[in-house]
Amino acid sequence: MSWNEAKPAEKANETGSQCTGSGSPGSAKHRVIGCLWDPLMASRPSERTLEQKQRAHKFLHELALPDGVYSKYLADSENFLAAAARFDKTCLPFRQLRWMKSKLFGRSLLIANFSSYQDSALADNNDAVAHSSMEVAGIHSPPAILTRKREGSVRLYRSILEHECVHIHQMLLGRMPKFSAKRGGPFQFLCEHTQLEFVAYYLQHFHWDVYDSKTMRGMGLEEWCCFRSYVSSLERTLLHLLSRDCKKSSLEDFLRNTADQLPGLLKPLGFSKETCQFYTGIFPQHLAAAWSNVGNLALQDLSMSNLGVLQKWLH
Ligand SMILES: [Zn+2]
User: Fold this and answer.
1) What separation in Å is there between the alpha carbon of 22 and the centre of ligand 1?
2) Structural domain spans, the chain
3) Which terminus of the chain has a lower count of CB atoms within 10 Å, N or C?
4) Where residue 127 falls among pLDDT bands split at 50, 70, 90?
């Protein structure tokens, strides 16, 4: 998929796509985005409702891997593990390559540990990412989770890894969206990306109730997941729109039309009409925050012409 081809990935010889995972609460990233949410619009439920349980169950059911798909994944992973074992450890981009059994799915998935984010695609505040493939001396892995040692809450870290396990399943099922610069394509990408992220965030936070109400800024489970899915997908879409491969007209089209189209994206996810209106009105600020979060990731690939369009629109 053309999920993400951020430059930092190349440093570590990783190829293919990535989904930026959940950063740490309280990071600069969250502070910037968080101030754009109106806390008066939502309150947090004290416990999971039957409807929420059914939704989580449905998502898990839809992500089940057919036996044949998982068997092939295991075989491809074993091949890659064997190939990596033949190399001098100091030549490998990762510190450790191993299996991790997902608590959500009960299946083992491939996970690579890195020493620090400088050595990997784990730029910014991401603790883990799901990659469609890693490469070692011309040998490609199946989808794998990349992570680095994380300080702090073990429970939160586990929830982040499980979020990435959801993306690995989505990759293996061929559900990851592809960015298209055609008319309407970027908005379509934003919609599809948001929907997939929503599933990952929902399963993460339904099962691991790791954030308190203050961290979630008063939002309930659905609203928090919608919010996180939308803003992270907006960042991903913007990265594509600002890349050298994307025509200026695609960005202009996206900037002109997206705010009005947002209710069509957000309503099916569970946003109220009032919240959709709120998001529509605050789209420029969300986009500015997205740019402040992804700017340092995109610098090497950036189209100066497209950046000029964005900056003119923002001011
Ligand atoms: Zn994600």
Assistant:
1) 7
2) 8-314
3) C
4) confident
